[in-house]
């Protein structure tokens, strides 16, 4: 019995030693062929679905982790308040537009008044020219003592009256033209007011449209964070949508001592913990210009006190090059092991 136990123990020890030797050999061989890290995760674009207007949620049409198509209705916001604002904007626009026919009528009336004054002005000008000639004849006759002073004075007085009538007609023309210009300025102001009211109406129509929250693209929704009857604010995030049409990538955090030979385009193998028996291919797309700690809220400052040297990590972005159907199984946040093939 003791011999059997000794034999089993001996073979167990030999097997364990052999396994350790093989493991060490594989590890050293991989270290020779690859730079590797297990500090890596699959990443993808997460697009927040935000509310553009505030209000109470009246209906929700999606569930957690639901697949949606572009344009699918996700939720509805109570629209009554925004519909009333739209109707008020329409009424204000109609009131502004109603001012234009009144201005048109006033402009036409003023234009006709100007034409009448111009006709009167032509008659006054003809009378003035005639009276000036008459005045000049009587002036010559008076100098030759061929007429009396009384007649000459009457002609001179008539000339003054006609000159006054002509000046009055000219002033009336200027006033009418000024009023016409005022009407044209009022038209410009009302047209500007109409454009403002049209823009306000379009804004209210947009607000009514924004009460229907739709999916911006095809994808998978995450966790639902709202309930029916909940009051939401403009800009509030209602859900996160993963774009299934966009590529996925891996962010691998290598030690700073490993990246000295890394370059864009270098081949990479990726093992995802969720699929341990499957390899994913990729290439290095870019290296971060700073270490990961520099993006933290409080970056370390080694000049502020005691210094302990810690090896830093450099985020490396890896583009996955497998077919989309294969990559579709990957989810953002999955852990991975990354092997960068040494050139």
What can you tell me about this protein's structure?
- This protein has a six-stranded antiparallel beta barrel with strand order 1-10-13-12-11-14. A four-stranded antiparallel sheet has the order 2-9-7-4, with no helix packed on it.
- It is built from four helices and 14 strands.
- It is elongated and about 175 Å long.
- By secondary structure, it is an alpha+beta fold.
- The model has no long low-confidence stretch (mean pLDDT 84).
- Helix 2 runs antiparallel to helix 3.
- It folds into three domains: 108 residues, Beta Barrel (Elongation Factor Tu (Ef-tu), domain 3); 52 residues, RNA polymerase II/Efflux pump adaptor protein, barrel-sandwich hybrid domain (OB fold (Dihydrolipoamide Acetyltransferase, E2P)); 131 residues, Helix Hairpins.
Which outline best applies? elongated
CATH topology of the largest domain: Helix Hairpins
Count of helix runs: 4
The name of the CATH architecture of the largest domain is Orthogonal Bundle
Q: How do the strands of the widest beta sheet line up side by side?
A: 1-10-13-12-11-14
**Succession of helices and strands:** HEEEEEHHEEEEEEEEHE
Brief summary of the model shown:
The chain is of the alpha+beta class and 343 residues long. It has helices at 2-33, 80-143, 149-210, 324-327, and strands spanning 34-43, 46-50, 55-60, 67-68, 73-77, 212-214, 219-221, 231-232, 237-243, 249-255, 267-272, 275-287, 313-320, 335-341.
